[in-house]
Structures are given as C-alpha cells and as structure tokens.
Amino acid sequence: MKNEPLEALAAKIHAAGRVALLCHVSPDCDTLGSSLALAEAIRMAGKQAVVFSADKLTDKQMILCGAQEVVQYNPHDPGYDLGVLVDCSHPGRVGDSAQVLDKCEEVTYLDHHVPEESGEVMSGWRDVKASSAGEMMCALIHHMGVGFTSSIAANLYMAISTDTGHFSYSNTTAQTHRAAAELLEAGADSARLTEWLYRRTTVGYTRLLAQVLSTLELLHHNKVALLSCAYSWLEACGAQEGETEGMIDYARDIQGVEIAAILKEGPDGVVRVSLRSKRRVDVQKIAASYGGGGHVRAAGCTLKMPLDQAKEEMKHALCQALEM
Ligand code: 5GP
Ligand code: MN
Fold first, then answer.
1. Distance from the CA of 215 to the center of ligand 2, in angstroms?
2. pLDDT one-digit tens code per residue, 146-167
3. Pick from 167, 198, 229: which residue ends a domain?
4. Cα(130) to centroid of ligand 2, in Å?
5. pTM for this one?
6. Does one domain contain both 159 and 13?
7. How far apart are CA 284 and CA 303, in angstroms?
8. What is the Cα–Cα distance from 309 to 222, expressed in whole angstroms?
9. Looking at the structure, do residues 220 and 163 belong to the same domain, yes or no?
10. Which ligand sits nearest to residue 26's alpha carbon?
11. Residues 153, 302 share a domain
C-alpha cells in the first residue's frame, strides 16, 4: 500500500544535501535513537546530517551509537537544506534547537504523537498508531534503500523499546515486533541493550527512587496515583535529572490505578508533569488543557507554579477526568 507522507518525506531527504535532525526537549531514546539512525542513513547516502538536542543526554543515553555527536544550537552553524523534527512536530517542542529551523530552507517532521491543538504548522509524516518514531524510522530507512547497519539497528531497537516499555504497553503491535525482529537480525544485541537500559541502576537513582516513592499519594478510591520529586533531591541523592524517567511506572503499575502522575520540579521553578492511564482516561486531553500533549495513554505538560500548588492542581484535574 502506498504511504504518501512517508514517500514525500523520503523525497525531501533525497533532494537535500545537508539535513538537520531535531530532537524534542527532555530527549528520550526514541527521539535520540531515531534521529541518530536517520543521520547515519543519510550519511550512507553520501549527504551530511547533524543531530540537535537542546537538552543534554543522560549517562544511560550515551549507549546510543553516535551519542557523542549530538550537538546544541550554535549561532555560527551554517544553514541546512532540510530540517526534520523527529518524534515531535511543533517547533515549540524542540526548545533552543528551534533556532536551527530559521536556518533551514524547508522544515518537516516524523511524529507519532496526537497533533497539537493549535494545529499543524508544517507538513510531514504522522502515524499516531505507530508505537514509536523508531518504528516509523525503520520504514523510512527501508524506503531510502539503505541497509540496516548494526549501529542503526541498535539505535532503532532502543528507540522502539523505550516507547513500548520494552514491548509491554498497548501501543505494541505485530508490526512493532516485526520491526524489532528485523533489527535483531541486523545485529541489535537485545540482551546487552536491555541490560544497560533497564537492569543497571546507580546508587543515586536508587536513593532518589526511595525518596520519590515515599511521596506516593492515592486518591479517588485508589484510582489516581501521584508521585513527586523536588529538585533539591537530585543533588542530595547524587542522581541526574533524566533518571526520574520511568519512575512513574511504579505508580501506574499499582493494581486498580487508572491514572498515574509524577510531578518533577525543575531548576527554574517550573514543574514537569508526566501522565499515564490504563484503560479509560485520555491523558493527552488533560495534558493539552495545560498546553502539553502526547498520546492517549502517555502524555506530559509543564506547570509554571510551585510544586505544592502544581500537585493540588493535578489532583483536582485527574479526579475530575475520572468523573467524566
Ligand atoms: P513523558 O511523560 O515520558 O515525558 O512523556 C510522555 C509522552 O508525552 C511522550 O510521548 C512525550 O513526547 C509527550 N510529552 C511530554 N511532555 C509533553 C509536552 O509538554 N508537550 C507535548 N506536546 N508532548 C509532551
Ligand atoms: Mn516517541
């Protein structure tokens, strides 16, 4: 079956000599792994590609092949023929990297999120049924006629694994497994990568986890679970900012919980909220009502208020969403 948006994206990449790939803020292995894989595929086709991330990578993310080549926006940077937003589709999602877009002749995206309420600002390839940008990237790189190297395979495997909770969330489909099987055949070392991503923690992470779990609050007949993390705890525990990723699962996984939230205080006084739901509630809608977004079962937003106030705000919003 013809996939016109995919073909249009491939054609744009084919026509470009220099391509900028932009990751979303608070990058995860989906946006980073997919961008690094595409960068490698573009270089194999004899062109130039640079991966931008406004935020630094965590130590864990340094396992991505080519992680050290990811750069932040530099005003001396020359221009690009094409800019591709990866795992997002709105310039507001790439933070300071948005300045790169001013230097691109054309801008497009590859994304699997629900579109922002403000509407599309450019054309690109969106597939909200895809588990991950990584899964879409498998198809794109295929279409480009570039073979999967072991590093492309490893990066895409980590991208897909991250967004599917290692093939456990409801976004995991037969197609997800087909893509993963292909990546394994191309040399992705599943045991090594999953050990590194999920079975290898630090003392700092474990201390922080203990702190965060001690904040657990259950509301609305235990259907809403809330966790929080004060910024000062990171230093006190010896943990890194990105290490809170995944902690929300401890709240989500509790039997009977329908909506889980974790509120993370940032260095600048704003609070990052992650939301998850199991069956009924559309957390993308809740996040969008605060200017955020994401997916039906996983979304996020930012609240510009003190942590305690943000908690009260979220408790109210989440309980209300359950009553609807
Ligand atoms: P997480 O809670 O893991 O940070 O994010 C869950 C999902 O929601 C991810 O797919 C992420 O890209 C998306 N997301 C998180 N925060 C925001 C936000 O502020 N705006 C939008 N549009 N999407 C977000
Ligand atoms: Mn993603």
1. 28
2. 999 999 999 999 999 999 999 9
3. 198
4. 9
5. 0.96
6. yes
7. 15
8. 21
9. no
10. 1
11. no
